[in-house]
Amino acid sequence: MTTLSEMKCEACQADAPKVTEAELAELIRMIPDWGVEVRDGIMQLERVYKFKNFKLAMAFTNKLADLAEEEFHHPGILTEWGKVTVTWWSHSIKGLHKNDFIMAAKTDQLLD
Ligand SMILES: C[C@H](O)[C@H](O)[C@H]1CNC2=NC(N)=NC(=O)C2=N1
């Protein structure tokens, strides 16, 4: 069975469907270190990664930027000393698409 991190994002059209509640319940279990936040009515996936210092946090941030460009799907990123907060949602549909779960799983792989 293909895991989320092995999947590719699909082009995110403005009329693409948000994940249903049932899909959300199934997909969130596949990325157990991620939480769901709602900001300005927009559902988002979020995880905080901890690092030993700012240099390591920045190195992770740069790898994430490359990943986002490869998939042309981009996160919110807050990079601080020893900490990177990553937030995934689909701007075009103002909510969560399967792409966001794929990218969250791929983000976790950057730690390997
Ligand atoms: C213009 C629009 O932002 C682009 O088509 C892409 C770029 N990256 C993106 N990233 C995310 N997270 N959501 C989008 O809808 C999105 N759209």
From TrEMBL:
Broadest EC class assigned to this enzyme: lyase
GO MF, one example: 4-alpha-hydroxytetrahydrobiopterin dehydratase activity
Signal peptide, first to last residue: none
Catalytic activity, reaction form: (4aS,6R)-4a-hydroxy-L-erythro-5,6,7,8-tetrahydrobiopterin = (6R)-L-erythro-6,7-dihydrobiopterin + H2O
CDD domains, per the entry: PCD_DCoH_subfamily_a
A Pfam short name: Pterin_4a
Transmembrane domains' residue ranges: none
Domain of life: Bacteria
UniProt KW S-adenosyl-L-methionine keyword: no
Keyword Lyase: yes
EC number: 4.2.1.96
One of the GO biological process terms: tetrahydrobiopterin biosynthetic process
Keyword set, alphabetical order: Lyase
Family as reported in the entry's similarity comment: Belongs to the pterin-4-alpha-carbinolamine dehydratase family.
Classification via HAMAP family: Pterin_4_alpha (MF_00434)
Name of the protein in its database record: Putative pterin-4-alpha-carbinolamine dehydratase
Organism the protein comes from: Shewanella gaetbuli
